[in-house]
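Fig. S4 source data, part A: sequence.
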Amino acid sequence: MSAAAVETLDCRDADPAVVRATLADIAVSNTLFGGRQAATWGVRRLLAGRAAGPITLLDVGAGMGDIARHLVARLAPRWALRPVALDHLRPAARLCQAADLPALVADLAHLPLRPGAVDVVLVSQVLHHLARNQVPAFLRCLNGLAGMGVVVADLRRARLAQAGIWAAGHILPFHPVTRRDGMLSVGRGFHRRELAALCAAAGVRPTVARRPGWRLVAWWAKER
């Protein structure tokens, strides 16, 4: 597949029915192959040592909100998570709203929030959709929005991971677009040092770790 190929979820004018089908498939993949667990692991590391209480979280590129809802359940009762979903696709925001998640529709390059607007920013499986030279500026923006810190969860690039997503897409009843775009996504994933270097270029110093399911998680706390 061409490196210039465009994934369906990158297109703001994508067919809403296809968007909904693809997001439902991604939610299944997140459950079975480590997406939810990776994000939860990162948020737990960020909040370790923080006092119990309410935490506001902005889920950037939230899809249908499955990860945000999973976090609410997993972090309770110690932290009462108050998530806000943000996506550039209106069908995604509507799915989040249908699941009782507050949701915003916005261009990821122009997030309509003031600095320090939320405690935690989570960006899960979004960075690989950006050109590499766009990532540092995007991370700087997210860092500015967060009062406590940022968690980045994304895909680890590997041939075995591509083989796995290809097989899963055919064993499970995934939409043909999900199968195609899943292969593209894994091919655009990161190696650990690459993600760390992009964070460093953004002026932040993360902890970057491999997680099961060919996942990478980077997280950093803001200075108190």
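Fig. S4 source data, part B ends here. The mean pLDDT is 93.
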